[in-house]
Specification:
With 461 residues, the protein is of the alpha+beta class. The protein is built from 5 helices and 23 strands. It is elongated and about 155 Å long. It has helices at 3-23, 41-45, 295-301, 324-330, 404-460; strands spanning 66-72, 78-83, 96-100, 110-120, 123-128, 139-149, 163-180, 183-190, 193-207, 214-226, 232-250, 254-259, 263-270, 274-278, 286-290, 292-294, 304-310, 314-322, 335-348, 352-372, 375-382, 385-387, 394-402. Strand 4 and strand 5 form a beta hairpin.
């Protein structure tokens, strides 16, 4: 029997049990309950006569998470049954799952946290947190991937200062719960997804110009490649977390750090979305960008010099440049999603310094809509959760230079100074030269006359 048929058979059985209890049409067989009140994973799975533990061998070096089954409860809970081959040696706990309850053109994934209920060997039972089964005759669950926490002992981390926080595993299945002729019905089909093959999370910092404090805008982005070609990227959904951070140092308080609770965020981007930022301070640069860009476009926007002031004498330019490390991190990646902006604030006094900004992390791409060879695709994404460095990938420099008029004025001023100096010191210099000339003449006269005087003295004697 195929895996799909086994899954469907188990789903129907579980659904029948739940519905029979809900409508009083039968009695749910007695099952051993765990400490948290939920039935055990094996008791549930064995309700399917086709289920056999031998289909799911233990493998200590297989750290994957593979969904066996979904089930809905009478309390509108959604359970996920997972096969974890390394369960006897590595007791991983699934951390989150990407589910869309709408499909096709309406596909919209949400990242739900997973609550561990119980396990037995390689079999694990989870509940999807903060999820309520819809009250609809037909219910869909399109699942792109499931996550577990990163484990430094077995997982390879990201490069260029990035850190992977959750490792994802491909599911790419769509479950349908419904009824046919009054009887519960379940189907499961494979769905097409797209995989992120290379990824970098970072941000660029745009200064707000001169103010009473140091302010800036941090523009956060994720650069990536995929396993499928993309001619035109139309839409993207991004999940990420934010956390307010404060750093203080000063006389009497030492150095302290403060972290607020993390918040979950979603960004829904379209290729027509544009952003403009000007800090509003003196000599602030103006920056514009698209939410969805190519890497070449992103680099061009952040490797430029713009004039922010042209006066009678001076020109003021802001030179923005991506660092060599930033360019190395972007190399080879095709697309950039600029999904969020946060503020940076620094105040430095005589006795204390305070810095406040927002940490953005756990970035994962949920959905991509794109065109390739004239065909439009709307697909869930297989991607890890990844956090970037707390340092920007760019450097911004204020350049103040005299313009043509300013250069002429400087030359004129220098000439005037030289004339003044010349007028003030020439008489003294001339007097000195004349005195030296007189002395030189006297010396030459003495030098010429000295032999004759000597000869005259000799003749007298």
């Amino acid at each position: 029997m195929s895996v799909a048929k086994k899954i469907c058979g188990l789903t129907v059985l579980l659904l029948l049990c739940f519905i029979s209890v809900l409508f009083g049409q039968g009695n749910l067989p007695v099952m051993a309950a765990t400490d948290n009140g939920y039935s055990s994973v094996l008791d549930d799975l064995k309700k399917d006569s086709n289920f056999s533990e031998s289909y799911y061998p233990a493998a200590g070096d297989d750290y994957s998470l593979q969904i066996i089954q979904l089930a809905e409860s009478v309390n509108r809970e959604l359970f996920v049954y997972v096969y974890q081959p390394c369960g006897k040696t590595k007791d991983f706990r699934a951390s989150s799952i990407n589910i869309s309850v709408t499909v096709n053109d309406e596909l919209s994934y949400y990242n739900y946290k997973m609550e561990y209920l119980n396990s037995s060997g390689v079999f694990y039972k989870y509940k999807v947190k903060d999820f309520a089964v819809l009250d609809a005759p037909t219910r869909y669950y399109a699942i792109s991937s499931i996550y577990r926490p990163f484990d430094g002992d077995i997982d390879e981390n990201a490069e260029h200062g990035n850190e992977i926080t959750e490792v994802n595993y491909n599911v790419s299945k769509q479950y349908c719960f419904s009824q046919i002729n009054g009887k519960p019905y379940c189907s499961v089909v494979d769905i097409e997804t797209i995989t992120i093959t290379d990824k970098f999370v970072g941000f660029v910092r745009y200064k707000d110009g001169f103010k009473l404090y140091v302010g800036a805008c941090d523009s956060h982005f994720v650069a990536f490649n995929t396993d499928k070609p993309i001619d035109k990227l139309l839409e993207a959904d991004v999940y990420y977390t934010t956390q307010a951070y404060t750093w203080q140092s000063g006389l009497g308080i030492g150095t302290k750090e403060y972290f607020k609770e993390k918040s979950e965020k979603y960004a829904y981007l379209k290729y027509t979305d544009k952003v403009e930022h000007n800090g509003g301070g003196l000599f602030a640069g103006t920056y514009t960008w698209d939410r969805i860009e190519t890497t070449e476009q992103f680099i061009a926007e952040n490797d430029l010099t713009q004039n922010v002031y042209s006066g009678a004498l001076l020109d003021v330019n802001v030179a923005n440049k991506i660092t060599d490390e930033g360019k190395a991190a972007l190399q080879g990646k095709k697309w950039v999603l600029r999904f969020a902006e946060t503020s940076y604030w620094l105040s430095a006094g005589q006795y204390s310094t305070t810095v406040m900004y927002t940490l953005v992390g756990d970035v994962t791409i949920l959905r991509l809509k794109f065109e390739t060879d004239g065909i439009t695709y709307n697909l869930g994404v297989i991607d890890n959760k990844q956090s970037g460095s707390d340092k920007p990938i760019n450097e911004e420099e204020l350049q103040i230079k005299p313009n043509t008029t300013g250069i002429i004025m400087i030359i004129l001023i220098l000439l005037i100074i030289l004339i003044i100096v010349f007028i003030a010191f020439v008489p003294a210099v001339l007097s000195l030269v004349i005195s030296l000339f007189k002395l030189l003449c006297k010396f030459l006269l003495w030098l010429i006359c000295a032999p004759f005087k000597l000869i005259g003295k000799i003749i007298k004697h």
